Amino acid sequence: MHPTPPPLAEKDQLHPRNPHRAPYDFPLLRQRSPELAAFVRPNPHGSLSIDFANPAAVKALNRALLREFYGIEHWDIPKGYLCPPIPGRADYVHYLADLLAESNGGLRPRGEDISVLDVGVGANCIYPIIGRREYGWHFVGSDIDGVAVRAAQQIEAANPTLAGAIECRLQPARTRIFDGIFQAGEVFDLTMCNPPFHASAAEAAAGTKRKTTSLGTARGPRPTLNFGGQNAELWTEGGEAAFIRRMVQESGRRPRACYWFTSLVSKKETLPGVYRALKTAGATDVRTIDMAQGQKKSRLVAWTYLTPAQQETWRKTRWTDPS
Predict the structure, then answer these.
(1) Distance between CA 172 and CA 128 in Å, rounded?
(2) 135 Cβ partners below 8 Å, 6+ apart?
(3) Is residue 238 part of a domain?
(4) Is the dihedral of CA 245, 246, 248, 252 positive or negative?
(5) Which of 4, 77, 158, 288 makes an SS bond possible with 123, Cβ 3.0 to 4.6 Å?
(6) Overall domain count for the chain
(7) pLDDT tens profile 32-45
């Protein structure tokens, strides 16, 4: 049985291939996306920025970043849905590419033959957008929210660069993750997930208040959360720990259907329970990859059930030299 992965050294920077490592170039971004110009102002330090507590400003910044870095001309989300910080989302994708490379002699598998399942694709469709642009991967995005699924489908349909690259599926059972999404005989090279963080609506509301207060923008009893988020995006019964345990259990029922199952883990305290669940499920290899964006620390956990011989067969049949 695999050992428990050791603690990792703390990081404070984004992935080396992440194009968002440098400060935002607001003069360039507002030139490329005139909508953003209305929100750009000098900050107290004398440099240009936006009010990150303003949802409209954050959405305009995301549109500008998606246009400049990912070739997305048409992007929108319904009011109140999660408007994610793109730099951190890009990190997850780049670390997954490294994970595949470590399993493939240092070569990062690219192209449409690489299939990725994004659990909880959301209305924003961010992970498929980034993964398609950076590595040419094909995505299936699942979600329990029909509005989110339709919004993600609209983003795919509105942008020629995404044509045929993303298939969105509604998860019919709110308590299921892979069940009902994996189709007969279907395999994925990767699954990815940013689980709901909080364990209840009250906990999510308290987190919203703390976040807003830290930005210095609390406005009475109902502060605005600049990144938004619906209930299914922010909380689930039992929080991320229970969600990831269910994910592990369901992954164990289809051990040959994916090379690397993965999930973000926000809380360090969640890790021991995840490792115990993976040991019980029979994972043959478990990796923990540290991630960071400034003061925000996170990590992803990846696991596989494939034996070394099965991994070798997978590489030979599905992954080719990108050169």
Answers:
(1) 21
(2) 93, 97, 108, 109, 110, 111, 114
(3) yes
(4) positive
(5) 77
(6) 1
(7) 899 999 999 999 88
